[in-house]
Amino acid sequence: KMAAAAGAAAAAAGLWSEVNRCGQNGDFARALKSVNKILQINKDDVTALQCKVVCLIQNGNFKEALGVINTHAKVLTSDVIAFEKAYCEYRLNRIESALKTIQSASQQTDKLKELYGQVLYRLERYDDCLAAYRDLIRNSQDEYEEERKTNLSAVVAAQSTWEKVVPEDLGLREATYELCYNSACALIGQGKLNEAMKKLQKAEELCRQSLSEDSDVTEEDIEAELAIIHGQMAYIMQLQGRTEDALQLYNQIIKLKPTDVGLLAVIANNIITINKDQNVFDSKKKVKLTNAEGVEHKLSKKQLQAIEFNKALLAMYTNQADQCRKLSASLQSQSPEHLLPVLIQAAQLCREKQHAKAVGLLQDFADQHPANAAEIKLTMAQLKIAQGSVTKACMILRSIEELQHKPGMVSALVTMYSHEEDIDSAIEVFTQAIQWYQQYQASQTRGANPKSPVHLSLIREAANFKLKHGRKKEAISDLEELWKQNPKDVHTLAQLISAYSLVDPEKAKVLSKHLPSSDTMSLKVDVDALENSHGATYVRKKAGKLTGDNQQKEQGQGEVKKKKKKKKGKLPKNYDPKVTPDPERWLPMRERSYYRGRKKGKKKDQVGKGTQGSTTTGSSELDASRTASSPPTSPRPGSGAAVSATSNVIPPRHQKPAGAPATKKKQQQKKKKGAKGGW
Prior knowledge:
Residues 95-150 form a coiled coil. The protein is mostly helical. It is built from 32 helices and no strands. The protein starts with a helix and ends with a helix.
């Protein structure tokens, strides 16, 4: 027995030497075989089990490694193998489990802290993640400092993009293309698109420099690495409205076939948003890229949500009503307070001509979620207007209390009521808005009564509206309020006098005394400069200098003015001076004394006389076979557009009266010219 034990120990020692040598060479598959042999000797060897888990992780077998840990949980306690277990769970996308494993570890090693930061980032807990990386950078000094700074900048970029937090300046030196890229993402989140584009261009330059130093890296490898930078550039172009440039760059990236399924999904989604309801076949192809395996682990929750919204919209555009309803209902169950799912459902109902049902759906949502009721009610009003129910649309808009006083809402309501000729309701809208501003100003100024510019603008618009519709008595109070605020406003005073002139003439006379005198109202205008200006409709001719005889002619009386020469009227070409012109030539033919009406039976002379079947000498002219064939209504390309050029027969519509034979030759020449070219 002792000899057998000694032999087993010697064999184990040899196997451990093999494991150590393979580990140093990076040959973990061969090391795993040796570890398994050691475990056959002693199945509960903790060190051997740890080595087996590490070998499986290095070979990418995370599920099998986690199985070994769970199977030998009594031996491999959390204190011994907490990092390996959490890492396997992280790589298997069991993020919540990984967080619990890290938090349950008795000792927080540096490796666990690094993994903790990654887990927090995946869980989108960006504030905690930022604190974790700051602590790591402060307390670590090794060759991974640059990677930690890159991760820290990624957290800041995510906060700016998804949480709209203004990022603080971390003072990071942007020496690598990863840091430049993350900085650009943070700028995009702030809306600084031009600055972000410059950062991305710098990142592209640094990336090319960094990768070109490695001789083994090909141009295809560089382009693949630059794909994510180019994708962000295209996104900026899309935000700037340069959709054609963005679309071209997106398609170039797709042709490279990058291995990052997250990048492909985002690009495909952005192309779908550019296509909208056009080019739906291309969108249906692109949507397949968003369904690739693993996409849900590569993108943030908001990115995935946006992709699902666009899938529902695409289903609506492609008339897949059931699919659209299914997707929008699923989205609504995931985010009950979100507006888009219910809006998509309402849009689908409208496409099916079920407007009443769509309005009911929106009303239910507004009742359940009062915080989002304003946007929903705006949509409901739009649907009512589309149905022609303007009054009902006004009622819906007036029910939005937080928007009642807004100038845009007041303007819209007044316009709609005016269209319906409901002037009383329009004036009521003005009155409510003015009262709201009066109460607001009183609460802000503790009883003082200064009027804000918006308040004064509303009063003026109300007065103008009342004057326009003949409500002068109601307009007077508004105009007096305006004049009280600005007594020097002559325009308001003039309007007030005009209103009083029809109601109280005496009051109008009293107020007219406040008008400035005509001397102060005179406008200093250079009339000559105004007349000579560009666009003047009337220009006064300047009198020329009078010298010598001209002055005497102007002073002398009875001088005969120089007569203008009259141009001789044009005579007809066939005018004969020996023949007296017809005195009735200016009258229409029917009104002339010698008009006898049209001669009937003129064509009878052309019909042959004699026995049946006989012809006259002129019958050859009526033979259709002897004339050119009729031109086609739509001549083929390259063919003559009219009759043949060799024919000397002029179609009837081109013939002139017998009295003008000289023009016949000219018309034939025109026909020949027309027959040379094709259409």
